[in-house]
């Protein structure tokens, strides 16, 4: 991705403003949907990049939704957040987590335009620039190469997940399955982040200073945004969000938290409000 320097503070502020709108939008969505937050797309056995998905379309190129919408993108289809630029950090202008990737002449967002094939992907997944991951008050224990942890629970009914039917505007009804149980806002831990800049790889952390990762913006369930600096959160083996052991090449899959379920969950749990 094309990254900003932290010195161009307007991009950091614009990013925070976008996340703030999404946080507030989730509360508006819940108020109109029996307290339920937007559906989290994180199928059992899949990796955290799913939390960035807006929807899937029929092919390359295409504008026809065949799966979703879900995650933050539900705010767009519910006409709560109407500007699709809101779903992206302005510091990122290329790649899977950039707005220009999913729009072109004749292909309004959310779309897969013909140029998408240049990314070398045959999967017509439309991603936003921010992870959507509301974290429950309920907790569970995990044990892995990082250690033993008590983390907000990621609950799948009967270890299978749920099947959810959608009827998005301009697309036929469709379903997604094996998803986590849908959370009510009253079930969410307000001290845990529910959205964040792309947790892709160390080199692509959105906000940088003098060519080095500086930090990320995270939004919390009440809609406020807190900047999460690398400095002070990057001690090795601390399990803080920027612990080098949680990022590539040291993490479990060696590809960064975008491909590491436990690392992603530890990082998300560690952001400070």
Provide tags for this entry.
21% strand, 273 residues, six-stranded mixed β-sheet, disordered N terminus, three-stranded antiparallel β-sheet, alpha+beta
Short summary of the structure?
With 273 residues, the protein is of the alpha+beta class. It is built from three helices and 13 strands; from the N terminus they run βαββαββββββββββα.
What does this structure look like?
- With 273 residues, this protein is α+β, with helices and mostly antiparallel strands.
- The protein is 14% helix and 21% strand.
- It is built from 3 helices and 13 strands, in the order E-H-E-E-H-E-E-E-E-E-E-E-E-E-E-H.
- It has helices spanning 9-31, 74-77, 261-270, and strands at 4-5, 53-57, 65-67, 125-127, 130-132, 139-144, 147-152, 162-166, 174-179, 195-197, 207-209, 212-219, 225-229.
- The strands form 4 sheets. Strands 1, 5, 10, 11, 12 and 13 form a 6-stranded mixed β-sheet that branches. The protein has a 3-stranded antiparallel β-sheet with strand order 3-2-4, with no helix packed on it.
- Strand 11 (207-209) and strand 12 (212-219) form a beta hairpin.
- The longest helix is centred in the first third of the chain and has 23 residues, at 9-31.
- It is globular.
- The two termini are 27 Å apart.
- 44% of the residues are buried.
